[in-house]
Amino acid sequence: MAEKIRNLEISNYRGIKHADLENFGDINVFIGKNGTGKSTVLEAIAIGASKCKVDYLGNSIFVNILNRRGWDKNKFYDIVEELNYQHKHSPKICINKKDAYFLSFFSSISSQDFETIKKEIKKEIEEIKVAINVNRLLKKEEKWYCTHYLWIDREKNLQYFILWNKELKNIFEDVEPVIALDNYMLRNLSLTANIFEKLIDLFGWKAKQAIIDGIKFLYSDVKDIDIKENIIRAIFDEYSLTFPSLADGLKSTLIVSIITYLLDKGFICIEEPENHLHPGMMEFYVDKIVESSEKRKNQIFISTHSLDFISLLLKRVEKENISVNLYHLIELEKGILKYVCYSKEDALGAIEKIGIDLRKL
Questions:
Q1: Alpha helix stretches (DSSP H) within 183-306
Q2: What's the pLDDT tens digit per position in 50-60?
Q3: What's the pLDDT tens digit per position in 173-206?
Q4: Cα–Cα nearest to 80, from 69, 92, 94, 95
């Protein structure tokens, strides 16, 4: 079982110069006005939980971060520089006061092909120009790890592969139990199809049936779901609907059903789950999140703007043996994160106060 995250320290990552968040529980919710660092905190947790490698689905956390910002082949340097505080300070992310990850962003290089890239890295491994270097502190000894090598191919697309311990060793088999769910995943049809296939491979029919039950929340007459040409379809008596044609709320429900079923004893980061959800669907979403924490022992981290979502969650866990903390991110004063943490017992009483703060201009 992965050790739960209890503390997170962030230095020089995106808009945060310094943040120190303490005493995480089983479910942790971050709420605040735009620009207070909710997405930054969630990304930092995903980076730390994945140990700067790949997530449970075999996806590079760093590449996902670049893609969700709207990867532009002409703005690579701008995008990676935005991850440094004020474009000049290298980020550091520390989990549980012991595992520290230092990220330094340099320029990428162009390449003829993958084999050429491997030769170049092997030849110049100590001084290669890389987009992302990771320095992990182990037992107070400073050791450098290059985990990601990014480049732009002939078609100007972003490409990458992953190294470990300064060797040309692919670590896709050495994944960490972490999944990050956001709107980018909702739009990424290929990624969703890969998740679906992995779920069926691992858990078979019972997992598929759990997803169908989630779809029936909106479409009571759905009979089955399958995948063809890398696109998921919902099958009815006389027709089928492909994943792109399904309602946005159903897409969200399908994805969260898959993810909460797929992972055990790991970490799930969810950004703004209230998007595209009507109140009834939101209640279903909350049930899945609580079920993931209670039955599957996953630690959940959520960013949200919705007081309704928080209220539903707090009422749902009121009598459950689950620790829930609400982190009200108040402001970034010269890059220093100020916040107030409420336990589940105190959070409901603070909702009105938080709501007034969120409505301030």
A1: 183-187, 189-203, 205-215, 248-262, 279-294
A2: 877 677 877 77
A3: 456 789 888 777 766 666 677 777 777 877 788 7
A4: 69
End-to-end CA distance of the chain: 44
Maximum CA pair distance of the chain?
Answer: 64
CA distance 51 to 181: 17
Tell me the residue length of the chain: 361
* Cα–Cα distance measured from residue 224 to residue 246, given in angstroms and rounded to the nearest whole number: 14
- Name the residue among 200, 104, 203 with its Cα closest to residue 145: 104
Structural contact between residues 299 and 5, judged by C-beta atoms closer than 8 angstroms: yes
Q: Which two tokens stand for residue 23?
A: 């005493």
Q: What DSSP string runs through 280-326?
A: HHHHHHHHHHHHHHHTT--EEEEEE--HHHHHHHHHHTTTSS--EEE
How far apart are alpha carbons 236 and 311 in whole angstroms?
A: 35
Using the CB atoms, write b or e for 165-192: b if 16+ within 10 Å. eeeeeebeeebbbbbbbbebbbebeebb
Q: Which two tokens stand for residue 195?
A: 């998740």
